[in-house]
Amino acid sequence: MSPAPGPPVPRPAAWRVELPHTTAAVPIARALVRSALTEIEGAERAAADSDTAELLTAELVANAVEHTPGDGPIELVVELFPATGGCQIEVHDRRPAGPGELIGPGPVAPVDPWQEHGRGLLLIRALSSDCGHRPTAHGKAVWFTLPALPAVPTQRRRGAGRDS
């Protein structure tokens, strides 16, 4: 007789959406990520910090729009990890070259506070729990992961449970 199987291991929930190769993709991606992280289980049980996820997603999508040829869509992949919590978000584009300084900082140079570009990958490195890129059949995927939000204990109301 074989041992009884354990409880099923929950599979990650994942969404894969094609976005237009225009700046309009940025707010669309932010809204999709917000929905995936909050509406699925409710804002009080979100898989990860949706504000951070939206910011980092916007950076990846904006980079894909600005630095890749516009001959095809950008693909957004959102994956939630039910067993451990957290999420991984990927942006796929058609340019095979890696994204500059995603894995580690380049040579130390003074930051020009008036410069409009150059901080997105720094934000991704600083705010994600992990990040990277990998080749795909049609270009590359740039990704980051965020941990699960810590459980917030519910506060008991003053006087709750006391007799009057």
UniProtKB/TrEMBL annotation:
PANTHER family (alphabetical): ANTI-SIGMA-F FACTOR RSBW, ANTI-SIGMA-F FACTOR RSBW-RELATED
Stretches assigned to the Histidine kinase/HSP90-like ATPase domain: 23-145
Protein name in UniProt: ATP-binding protein
Keyword ATP-binding applies: yes
SUPFAM superfamilies in alphabetical order: ATPase domain of HSP90 chaperone/DNA topoisomerase II/histidine kinase
GO molecular function list: ATP binding
Keyword Manganese appears in the UniProt entry: no
Signal peptide: none
Organism of origin: Streptomyces roseicoloratus
UniProt entry keywords in alphabetical sequence: ATP-binding, Kinase, Nucleotide-binding, Serine/threonine-protein kinase, Transferase
